[in-house]
Amino acid sequence: MNVWKLTAAGNLVKTEEDLVPEEGKRRVRVTKVYVNPQDAALCYGKRKVKYPLVPGRFATGVISDDGSPRFPKGSRVLLHSYLPAEDTGTQKRTFLEDDFRILGRTCDGFLRDFVYAGEDEMTLLPESVNDEKALLLYCIALAQATVDTLCAKRGEHIAVIGADLLGLFVSRLLIYRQAAPILIDSRRDRLDFARARGVYYTSPADGGLMELVGTVTGGRLADGAVFVTDSGAEDISLAVTICAQDKHIALCGSGENTLPLDLAGILKKRLALHGVSDGTENLEIAINLIANKSIDLSAFRFLTFPADRTPLLLKELADEPDRPVDEICLINML
User: Fold this and answer.
1) Which fold has domain 2-135+300-332?
2) pTM value?
3) CATH topology for 138-276?
């Protein structure tokens, strides 16, 4: 089978390897892989990884062998990106080890023709959710986990710092819960897109932000905040500044960026910080949100590229990290 393997920073090569069957796991034909600027940063040495590595964090596939009635041959599935860490039982684990693996980041991902996966390592896709939409399920599920962490109530004003794809979904889910997001970003094009999709309160992170917050909230600070770590937003202290006392701040994303914390402000305001990096348990909820159109994906442009163009596409994404937020790049593995 064909495998795309990263052997060094910037060196993604196509190889041929035999797929070794794994007991108790199903053979899955990978169909599409979603790649974004975070994947490009990994491939070009801006993230620490162990080589060699097969990239590709988010993928759909088709069951290609005979098995249980739950996942019959030909079933379309979303392959899980976050899996429990392997434990052989022969060595003690240390406190420095991760309790989970991130496919395409800490272990081999999905840029290959076939994988073996257990039935608990994939989610069955309904006909109402096509492959393109399915590849955004993890992002929607992470947004759902973020909103759940905040326990946002009807009428509350929540600052969302970072208007990338995740920030947009967090804002939409807050509106779905009848809360009022205030979406903040340095890029006007992102804010324009968000307003066109129904996010009413948006603002650049400039001198007029706090005045807007006061106007929206009736002279109060925000009832909570979300800081999207992979969005390009750098001033995490803004989340502390914008929150009222005894509120919650959710830090959501991959957690690979090092950010300074305003500990004095956190302590003074008695703020609670929550880290949210995996939404796997919310995948079924995300499917329902798409199926019943609570999350509308019609404004996004799904751009599909052949597998042989993967190295060039990743180079383009690395060189142009500020591409339009509505542009979703997919690799067709068939």
Assistant:
1) Quinone Oxidoreductase; Chain A, domain 1 (3.90.180)
2) 0.94
3) Rossmann fold (3.40.50)
pLDDT at 40: 92
115 in Cβ contact with 67 (< 8 Å): no
Residue 89 has pLDDT above 80, yes or no: no
> Closest Cα partner for 171 from 162, 157, 181?
181
Q: Which amino acid is residue 246, in one-letter code?
A: D
Cite the residue boundaries of each domain of the chain with CATH code 3.90.180.10. 2-135+300-332
